[in-house]
Amino acid sequence: MEQFAEASRGGADRAADAVVTRLEAMIGAGELADGSFLPAERELMSRFGISRTVAREAVVRLAGRGLVETRPRFRPVVRRPGYDAALSALGGVVGQLLGQSAGVKNLYDTRVFMEAALVRYAALHARKDDIAALKRALDANEAAIADAAEFYRSDMAFHAVLYELPRNPVMPSIHRAFTAWLRPHWERMDRSSERNRSNFLSHREIYRCIVERDAEAAEEALKGHLAAAWEYVRGTFEPA
Q: Is 203 exposed, middle or buried (0-12, 13-18, 19+ CB in 10 A)?
């Protein structure tokens, strides 16, 4: 049994730090596999010679680092370190920032900045399989115009292809984070087939510019599309 002293409050904090360090090493080494359950609270107490308070604090800190996923009444699930886990760990902080004045706009502007660069990259470097992936996403987007929920999914899928094009594992994780952080606003937006069609036509124009290798036009089409979309997003939190 590993022993982590916790005679005082400061000692308890140090004990929690030590437990977190040990569990983090075990996760990194694969001793605790991704998707497996974290050892039960009583097992942590017995293994490390700690109190229930320290065991719970250690789990909270691991969750804050994105190394475990917690849900009420369920055992914590191990999440191996990765870009998704790192960005997911920011979710609580981002949620607080989005509640501040201009918070949503700042995040949305960051998305515009990144996607403007991505469409330029796509126009200059997209390969045949990239173009084919964009076309499949575009076709699915058109087919979903009459179905609001499916159109939303196909809309996100079209933009997701842009994040996959650089073949950098950070980028898809960033897209998933943006999607998760902004989803509450997307879900509160008014939707109609007419608006969906307008968004599809914007996607089609972006695709056309990429296929024609026109980076300037692709960037302008993307910015125009997201500027129009912002006018709907802002209605989810700004008074009329």
A: buried
Residue linked to tokens 């229930």: 52
Structural tokens at position 141: 């987007």
Q: Is 182 helix (H, G, I), strand (E, B) or coil?
A: helix
88-111 in b/e form (b: 16+ CB < 10 A) is bbeeeebeeebeeeeebeebbeeb
End-to-end CA distance of the chain: 62
Cα angle 157, 161, 165 (rounded to 5 degrees) comes to 170
Helix or strand holding residue 96 (H, E): helix 91-98
> Would you say residue 137 has pLDDT above 90?
yes
pLDDT band at 8 (very low <50, low <70, confident <90, very high): very low
With cut-offs at 50, 70 and 90, classify the pLDDT of residue 233.
Answer: confident
Q: How far apart are CA 147 and CA 74, in angstroms?
A: 35
